[in-house]
Amino acid sequence: MIPEVSGGRATLPLRVFADLIMGQAPVGDSYNDTGHGLPLIAGAGDLGQVTPKPKKWTDSPTKVGQHGDIIVCVRATIGDLNWADRPYCYGRGVAAVRVKSGCEPHFIWYWLEACKQHLQGLGRGATFKQISKEDLAELPTPDLPLPEQRRIVSRIKACMERVEEIERDAAVASREIDALFPAVLNERFDEIRAAHGLQALEQAAVIRGGGSLPKGTSIDQGDESVLLVKVGDMNIEGNERVISVAREFLTKKEAGRNTIPAGAVVLPKRGGAIATNKKRMLGRPALIDPNLMAIVARQDVLRAEYLYYWCLTLDLATLSNGGVIPQLNRKDLAPLQVPMPPLDAQQHIVESLKRSETYCGQLRAEFDAAQAERAQLRESILRKAFAGEL
Question: Which CATH class is domain 197-340?
Answer without folding.
Answer: alpha beta
